[in-house]
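Hi C.,

You asked whether I'd gotten around to modeling the 346-residue construct. I have! Everything is below, sequence then structure, no commentary in between.
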Amino acid sequence: MSRWRLMHRREAEQDWDLLLCAFPGVTIYQSYAWGEFHRRNGWTPRHWVAVDQSGTPVAMLLGMERRYLNVAVILSYGGPTGDLAAFGAELHDAIVDALGVSRLYCRFASSRPYSSHDALALYSNGWKRGPHAPPGFSGLSMTLDLDRDLDEVLAGLSRNWRHNLKRAWKRDLRIEQWHAPDPAEVLELYRRMEDFKGVRAALPQGELERLMTAFEKQIALYRCLDPDGRTVSLRGCLVFDSSGIDMFAATSPAGRKNYSSYGVFWELMHECVRRGVKHYDLNGVDPIRNPGVANFKKGTGAEFVEYLGYWDWATSERLRRGVNLASLSRDRSRDFFAEVGARRTR
């Protein structure tokens, strides 16, 4: 049986990431910095650790807390981490005791690969499948193996993807690492892309600035400049431990014509390898609603992965249904997890 405890903020600042990186398949969405980023957005990050009888950590959970009247809501993206058998009554009791509440709702959106073993562990501990997922969430992603020579990665590209990459190399383009990106310029490129596609997906400038500030040292970002010095394409990711996760991607109509998106993606992969990234998460695909983006990602040689997905638990079934009804209403206008998870802006 495991024992859960809530870490104090100073302790978490020093030790959280060190403990987290001891587990396989960790994600930046469970990192200390991710919690602090959302503290600036009005959430209170909470750090729970479960240890076994010998004191060895067996599971971890970063949850974002908000209070709504007399109800505490805990949202967690990317996690949970570790042995899912530990996410039972002991965790529920620990959260209720630590927060001093009697009504609690917990939800997480797990980006770990789906397995029936994990699903059974959650069901056994009282968790239920989320009744709905936010707009744009297909439950699928793709991962690219970078734990090999880049020549092997190049050989794994689809024929069409490799052909378009060579086209980009032949154009009069300059691809460079963008060390100090201007959020306003980044947003302008997104707007040009969105106007062309007829969608609105980018983060507001203030939130984009906070994201870039919070993860300044963990961002790897490349851009492509046309002969007139205009940014026509960008691609970037967040790097944590040995993993990279796709976070920024935008190409203007002019950039689409010169295949610049292929060039910036390939240079970004070089940078990821230099930083020790072994697994690159392409952060969601939807082959039905967005086949073009899915085909681009598939062409890199990445493999499909199904997420474990959305699960929730509450102190009462009535509370669970009430929160889900409220979140469904919010989903009609925006993503319920937009304040917690990454906005998929591809």
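If it helps when you're writing up: The chain is about 35% helix and 30% strand.

Thanks,
B.
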